[in-house]
Structure formats: C-alpha cells, structure tokens
Amino acid sequence: MASGETTGTADRGNATTGARPWPALLTLLLGTVLYLGLPLWVPVPDASAFAGPPADWVRGLRLFAIFVTTIVGIILNPLPMGAVAMIGIAATVITGTLPIASAMSGFSDVVIWLIVLAFFISRGFIKTGLGARVAYSFVALLGKHSLGLSYGLAATDLVLAPAIPSNTARAGGIVMPVVSSIARAFDSRPGDGSERKIGAFLILTAYQVDCVTSAMFLTSMAANPLAQSLAGELQVKVTWTGWMLAALVPGLVSLLVVPWVIYRLFPPEIRRTPGAVDIARAKLVELGKMTTGERKMVGVLVLLLTLWIFAKPLGELNPTTAALIGLCLLLLLGVLGWDDVKAETGAWDTLVWFAALVMMAGFLNKLGMVPWFSRTVGGMMDGLGWVSGFVLISLVYFYSHYFFASNTAHVASMYGAFLAVSIALGAPPMLAALVLGFFSSLFAGMTHYGTGPAPVLFGTGYVTVGAWWRYGLLISVVNILIWVGIGGLWWKLLRLW
Known about the structure:
This protein is mostly helical. 71% of the residues lie in helices and 0% in strands.
C-alpha cells in the first residue's frame, strides 16, 4: 500500500526504530546486484535500437537499477515510502548517475504540486463535516433498499472524488464509518456469522465503486497525476477536462452496473432497509444546519471545478494554478488553518515519493531507455495490428496488478514503458494514455491489498479473502468490458481514435 494513496494511513515502517532489517537487506542487495551487474550483462544495442552514446546507455542502466530498487523498496517497505524515495534520490547523486540539480528537479514539477494541493483542499471536507453530510444525505435519499443504499455510497464517492485525491480518505475515512454504522444497526457484525446480512455486501460494493471513481478524475487518486506526468514525457498532454470527459460515460455505467452485479451474485440477506434512512436522518439532525465552514467549502469546490473544466477558455489556466487559488481561499476564509496544512502528512509524503519517481522516470526517457524498450517490444509485435497489440498490452498491464500492493508503484514501474510500446505499435497516443490511466485505478479491485482502501475495508472482517478475490476477478472482467466496449464507442465519438 502506498502512502500516497492514503491520507492519515500509518506506514508499516516505524521511523523511530529505523529500517526493518530483512526488507532493507534484500532491497540493498538487489540494488547492488542490478547497479553493478546490468552494465556488464546488457551490452550497448546497435544504433537502430539505441540512438544515444554508450555513456548514456550505461547511465540509463544504472538509473534503471536505482529506479527498480526504489520500487521494490516501496513494496517491501523497509522504511516509510517517503524515506525510501528520498534514499533513491540520494543514490542517484552519490553514485554519480545524475547531478544534484537533476536529482532534485522533480520537486519543481507542477503536476506533483497539483496533487499535493488537492490533498490540502480535501482536508476541508473532513474538517468541516461536509463529507459526512454528503454521505448521510445520499443514504437518506436512496437507502430504503439495500441496492439503493449501495448506490447512495457510490454517489457519495462520486461527488467527493474530484477534490479528494486519497481514495482511502474517501472510502476509509468517510464511507466506511457510515457503512459500519448501518451494518451494526441491522445486527450485521464481523465474526459472528451475521456478516452476510448486509455488512459484507456494503463493504465489497463500497470498495469496488471507490476503484471506479478513482479512475474517473485526474485528481481522484494520487497515482493519476503520475500517469499524466509520464504521458507528458512522451509528448502526450492529458488535461483534467480531457480525462474527466473520456471517463464520464464508462464510469457512470460502471457505477450503475457494478453494485447491481454484486447484489445479484453476492446478495445481502436483508433486502429492504428503511431503517437506514432513519439512521441517516438522525445523523443529519445531529449534524444540524450547514455551517458557515461547509458553505465556504462548497463555494470553493464549485469554483475549483469551474476553473478545471473551463481551463481552456480561461486562457489555458493551469490546473495547479486553480488548485493554488482554491487553497489560498480556504486559508483566507478560515476553513483551513496553516496548522491543518502542516499536519497533512499524506500530502508532504506524496511530494517526496512523487518527486523521486517522476524524476527517475523522466531521465530514463531522456537517456533513451524508454524509447529503446518501446522499439524493441514493438518490433516483437510487428505481426499484430495496433488494436490487437494494444488490447494485449492493456490486459497484461491490468492483470499484472496481482503482483503489486500499490497503484503508485505499478504506475511508476510499468505505465511509461507500456504507453511507449502502445504508441510504437500505432495506437493513438491520447487513447493509449487514457486507457492505461483508467486501468491504473480499476485493476486495484482484484485483491485485498491492491490499493490504500483495500486493507482498510477488508480489515473490517466482513468479507473473506476468497470472496474478495473471486468477486474482484469477476468485477475486473465487468469493468474491462464496460470501459473497452461502451467506453470504446464513447471515445470514438470523442475522436480519440
């Protein structure tokens, strides 16, 4: 699980006791072997495959060794993710692979600051109570039936997704407390045989719809801007509006179909839930009328969405500029204090690991490693048309997530290379960038460790591992059919291919 995919989620590494010995030793050993061995094992390709000088090839291999070691360190977690990333930055400088100015260049990336600023803004939803109010309002509106209740959870996640980049903050911090409250009110508790009354259905549905909403907006999951940045390295400019528009139709269809599929195949024992409406209404009464802080939060959110959606008519307004305006307004209006910004550890952690991964991925491209990989793999698929080749590449990319416990690590290690190969095969660059970007959230639904909210929701104890994996695989097929089938027709109308 990547800390960049969470807000307030504890790191498995304990900074006060140093690194975990065995994961640290394995990571160091792998890094040493790759750093020393790759230049010896992999000779410089001929000029048709690699156009740069031999020195760049060697530097690229060494940077690749540091990059892979950083990713493995993120997965094994000998230290918190930000600490692993900082060590990776230091390694590029200490070994002479990159000069210090290049190694630190990631901290000036505006895409990184977009997601960091979005983390700060999302704190306002939790602090003001607006997030809980939205959740209980949808439950009160749709919660008379268990299926309607699941749609209420989906609507909550959808409304919050554009401005909350932490999928764990949404699913674990806002939705899960609502689900737990409702499940226990219907005497559905983990560990006593009553899980299937309603709790298991709601937990599984809440997780799967969170994966869908994470795919729908550039700012709804921390790894999405990383994909945007990696696409930019290949001269594919993905905008906030372009991402949202392309994801809109397949995303809404998934939000309608996925809860229904789970309801049919993993049904709750309790079908009618009028008591859920009563619970939600009682909670809304407890919250009282909307506070001034909530109204200010709504106003800033509307302004932000307006600036993001109409960025082009507003003189190509940069999304990061819009986010900066939003944060400044929240500070000036007193919705957030500077202490809130300083205490948002998930944002500062994201800044560090994001800067490291974006920097390394960018220089792997500049040193010619990514173009070499794309030409080599593209040559191996010469017999395939771009449609067949891209489908194959996308499926490999999707189902390889079984080997990852973090969307961020997966995107950082595979997105850029797979996008480059797709473009080399002839796939329309924007279509390839967006599809792989959408898959970078959807594939997390397969396992109980696939992204930040997975262990949080699975940890409630309502759903067994077997059920989580079985229905995760099934929903992955449903989502792929929706996003490639219905999405493909929608993208044709948008002239993405």
